[in-house]
Amino acid sequence: MKVNVDEAHSLLYPRPVVLVSCVDSKGKRNIITLAWSMPVSFDPPMLAVSIGFRRESYRMIMESGEFVVNVPSSKLVSEVLLCGTISGRDFDKFKEAKLTAASARRVRAPIIAECLAHLECKVEKAIEAGDHMVFIGRVLEAYAEEDFAERKKEVLLYLGEEKFTTSL
Ligand SMILES: Cc1cc2nc3c(=O)[nH]c(=O)nc-3n(C[C@H](O)[C@H](O)[C@H](O)COP(=O)(O)O)c2cc1C
């Protein structure tokens, strides 16, 4: 099967989906759904998220230099889709998706209380990659629900378009 190079990324799906929360210098908060994220270093602990230049979250993370990666369960599939469809430029996604912004421990960006795990990050590097910016974040603090190990099967995997699965 030949695949158009423009669609080559879809051959790498399913991919875990995360909700990244952020804040700008005026205190405005936002959430973006991402399928393009990955760990990149053990020591120091670092991860990468790739965010399109046109996203409101791109502007906010460039401004604040921090973000939180939140791991949603399959129960949040409609919230994940909503946060990946509308823009923080026009909506307060915490309100629209009825998600709770709680204080993080080491960064100003809020965590999303309903998620299973949270990784608080400070931007160490921002690397342009075509139409996206790859933010390399150093993980300052990480924590999860006590039963996270047993609930890993609930973690949402993105299949492309509007389709998701889990490893259940
Ligand atoms: C499942 C899913 C995965 C997505 N993955 C990414 C991604 O990795 N990078 C990205 O820039 N946008 C991604 N998007 C699109 C953004 O989430 C979407 O454009 C969002 O509305 C941007 O919000 P903002 O303008 O408030 O930042 C994804 C959307 C969905 C539904």
How is the topology of this model organized?
Layout: E1 15-16, E2 18-23, E3 29-34, E4 37-41, E5 46-52, H1 56-64, E6 66-71, H2 77-83, H3 93-96, E7 101-102, E8 111-112, E9 117-129, E10 132-144, H4 148-151, E11 157-160, E12 163-165
Antiparallel strand pairs: 1-11, 2-3, 2-6, 4-5, 5-10, 6-9, 7-8, 9-10, 11-12
The chain binds flavin mononucleotide (FMN).
Flavin mononucleotide binds next to strand 3, strand 5 and helix 1.
Structure report:
By secondary structure, the protein is mainly β. The protein has one domain (5-165): Pnp Oxidase, Chain A (Roll), CATH 2.30.110.10. It contains four helices and twelve strands, in the order E-E-E-E-E-H-E-H-H-E-E-E-E-H-E-E. A hairpin with an 8-residue loop joins strand 7 (101-102) and strand 8 (111-112). The chain starts with 14 loop residues before the first strand and ends with a strand. The structure holds flavin mononucleotide. Flavin mononucleotide is lined by residues 17, 30, 32-36, 50-52, 55-57, 81, 84-89, 132, 158.
